[in-house]
Write a structure and sequence with these properties.
Blueprint (H helix, E strand, L loop, with lengths): L1 H13 L8 H8 L6 H4 L2 H4 L1 H8 L6 E5 L5 H10 L4 E6 L1 H6 L1 H10 L3 E5 L10 E7 L2 H7 L1 H14 E14 L5 H4 L2 E2 H9 L4 E7 L24 E8 L1
Parallel strand pairs: 1-2, 1-4, 2-3, 4-5, 5-6
Antiparallel strand pairs: 5-8, 7-8
Length: 238
Amino acid sequence: MKTILSLIALFLVCSNATAQLDTAALERAMANPDRPAAEKERDAARKAPQVLAFAGLEPGMTALDIIAAGGWYTEVLSYAVGDSGRVIMQNAGAMAERYSEAIVDKEDRLSNIELLEGDVGSVAASSVDFAITALNFHDVHNSNPQAAQSLLGQIATSLKPGGIFLVIDHEGTPGADNVSLHRISFDEAVSAIVNSGQFALVGASDVLDNAADDHTVGPFDPSLGRNTDRIVLKFVKI
């Protein structure tokens, strides 16, 4: 399933010249000396230029980083959309408090980001071209599927018609205790998002596959070195 969808997505990206991202330029921007060294250490495992090129992110877009935490993706998105674009860095409650220092740092250094401390529902309707949630949809869905559906509705409202929604998460095995493992299976993630009635799946990428991860331990197990096997799903707002 993942391989077939990856081929479909590759065709969609390559057949639309406007969807091409200058990955070399993004890599150079990510290497700049102002970026925190601790964030650079995650670059090899996260492969953001390849992931965002697959997703169809373009300069000038308005991007929404959902549950941004310390803003690893916020900063990368800031470089990718450029001065003509903007990035909304969304956190709420305890998450905003936990990462307050990193959030302030992002606001001080990056001129094209906007901080949102509150629900995604606060984002203006049909104002976003591209939304992403990285490594956290499993937490929302596993703990409260209804809350996940509410979040998906808010995301859909914020997106323009045809807007892109990218989901990256720690892959789990169907039938396993993915709640305890902080994972979600490919099929469950797709089902939860498509069944919201707000999104259509248009592709999946294996760029973050890691065969060394057998899905039996959690993402923070030392044996994984924070490099889990990950699903990368591209949806569009219906």
